[in-house]
Amino acid sequence: MNDRSERTYEKVVNYIQSEIWKGNLKRGERLPPERELAELLGVGRNSVREALRTMSLMGFVSSVHGAGNYLTCDLEQNLSASFRMMLLLGETNYLQVSQLRRGLESETARLAAGRILPGQANRLMDLAVKMKEEPDPLKGGQYDQEFHDLMCNASGNKLIQAVFGAMLATVNDFITTVYQRIMADQEQAHALHQAHIRLAEALARHDELEAIRATFNHFEVVNTNIQKDELAGRRIF
User: Does 188 score more than 90 pLDDT?
Assistant: First the structure.
């Protein structure tokens, strides 16, 4: 991309951002047609199309065939693609993703402890018990993911929910495989189940510190198993 095309591309993006800032554009609303944008900004339609395509890849514009382009805010889509590319390029690994989850979920647990509703707390405990009693590790893994998703929703933080969703979408198979391997070790399985139960109990009591401790206990089990696989030179999946 040369300097001129970069400037015209930025002109389109800056215009859309300005309209959002002024309150003229809101999420879900239709953007002006490409021809209208090109004429308004004095740029070529190719520049407009390029800017909208890039914003679509970033999750901020959604194209509907025959109906035009609409303003969206799918941060999860953008982050998920970034996580996946970093993994493919070897710029990060599954242990680092899990370490990021540990930090993120510690704050999630802290927030959820202050905001969780009685129905959510009851459901978390129900899921923790089901995980412990479920003989099928695949089904248990589904309960595990539902548990963490519900805790994330209980935090009430939209940005945390987007980052969490992006990570899950990227490493879903990896999480399932690690859970199954933990379940194959009776001691490790017990430690993981107890961490979930402690976390559910702490959230029901609105105990922030205990919720954070339980979250760290949970990820001690997970990260230890990931490191075992790395030291043994085994593929996670």
Answer: yes
